[in-house]
Amino acid sequence: MEEIIHFDKQLLLMLNGSDSLFLDNLIMILTNAKTWIPLYVGLFYVVWQANKPNVRQILLIVAAAAMCVVAAGAFDDGIVKPLVARWRPTHDPEIGSLVDTVNGYRGGNYGFFSAHAANTFSIAIFFSLLLRQRLATIFLVCWSLTNCYTRLYLGVHYPGDITVGLLWGGFVGWVVYRIYTRLTVPANYPMKLCYVPIVILLLTLLVAVVLAFFFSDYLWW
Question: What is the pTM (predicted TM-score) of this model?
Fold first, then answer.
């Protein structure tokens, strides 16, 4: 176990930070949950268009998505992190001074496991199963993994924290989808509808790059 923990710490130090101000700004934008609000709106639009006028079906999906967040992230933050009490890298007495931080951002005291990883991957898996479109699945999984990488870059999670978060989030997303299918029959989601969140994801990334590159002096955290 000591060897695994040591490897986890060394791998984090390899992946953490850079000498690029542009990357620092971009990562801070991408790790912010508010950045992805347009994606959530896009997913809701797809659900609405595919299920209208069946309000019950729409509310079930909204409730399922909320259940993913509660079971994945809130469970982690409220129960697992305080119980396990594993220091975030930025607070770890052993390597904390070696971790490259961005604008002094260090996160809370404990980091096992990653709520960012659990939350985003539970949503990615649930909507991938719901939409059943390969391209949408690829983009949603890449979105989740991008969020995970930002946490490593910022030094607020070890790779092990991310891995467990992904496993738990994937399990939660799958279980919630199974519960959802027990309650109702999923609608059909044509590919033309699924292009909406994909385009929103790409545009969000483009805007983030532009902001990080051209307007870094106006960004504050």
Answer: 0.93
